[in-house]
Amino acid sequence: MATNPGEPMEELPPPPLESAAAPPYNLIAERLFRARTVIISGEITQRVAAGVMAQLLALAGESSEEITVFINSQGGHVEAGDTIHDLVRFLSPRVRMVGTGWVASIAALIFVAVPREDRYCLPNTRFLLHQPAGGSGGSASDIEIEAREILKMRDRLNRVFAQQTGQPLERIEEDTRRNFWLTAEEARRYGLVGRVIEHQAELGTAG
């Protein structure tokens, strides 16, 4: 912020989610916490992962009641996604995933961190599975190392998706050679989603 007379004032962005039409962000966060609900939206970064970890650990420490995670993301940093995926599996409380909008790339890995019966999505959700991408430059040796690591990462992710969907590993490998898009119903048939729902009352009911 400017301190010298005559120096222009720095413009600060408005607080997130705050407007005349919405309650203050802190109030929304408090209500989400009381509802044991976490929202993952946008690019998966280390910062997003840290925030999601904090919320999940706080909720798990508060009680053993189930936690609901809504996810709408284009994907992002693989290791950040791994962090959330592993923590969800680590927690004692039951976690339910609800996909909305799109669940793409590493966001799909987060989505399958829970058993299939706890994976829901809304009707217009789209899913994207694909191979991890590299982009490292440097020496020939560095590029070779990076290529090996990407292959190891691809194989690991394919095995997770095979295990969590019930699809043969060979089919996962073939389907993810290119961008593999699925509608909500296609994702359900593929084993990615347990149930497509339209109303909040359907969460947790028999599928």
Descriptive account of the structure:
The protein has 207 residues and is an alpha/beta fold. The protein is built from 7 helices and 7 strands, in the order H-E-H-E-H-E-H-E-E-H-H-E-H-E. Strands 1, 2, 3, 4, 5, 6 and 7 form a 7-stranded mixed beta sheet that branches. The longest helix has 26 residues, at 140-165. The radius of gyration is 20 Å and the shape is globular.
CATH homologous superfamily (4th level) name:
2-enoyl-CoA Hydratase, Chain A, domain 1
Shape: globular
| Poorly predicted segments | 1-20
Q: What is the residue-mean pLDDT, rounded to a whole number?
A: 88
Which percent band covers the strand fraction? 15-25%
Supply the CATH class. Alpha Beta
**Share in helix:** 40-55%
Radius of gyration: 20 Å
Label the CATH architecture.
Alpha-Beta Complex
Distance between the termini: 55 Å
Pattern of helices and strands: HEHEHEHEEHHEHE
How many beta-strand elements? 7
Number of domains: 1
| Secondary structure tally, helices | 7
The largest pleated sheet is described as: 7 strands, mixed
Q: Structural class, from secondary structure content?
A: alpha/beta
Quote the CATH topology.
Answer: 2-enoyl-CoA Hydratase, Chain A, domain 1
Give the structure's gist in a few sentences.
The protein has 207 residues and is of the alpha/beta class.
Element layout with pairings:
Elements lengths: L24 H10 L2 E5 L4 H17 L4 E7 L4 H13 L4 E10 L1 H6 L7 E3 L4 E4 L10 H26 L3 H7 L4 E3 L1 H7 L4 E2 L11
Parallel strand pairs: 1-2, 2-3, 3-4, 3-5, 4-7
Antiparallel strand pairs: 5-6
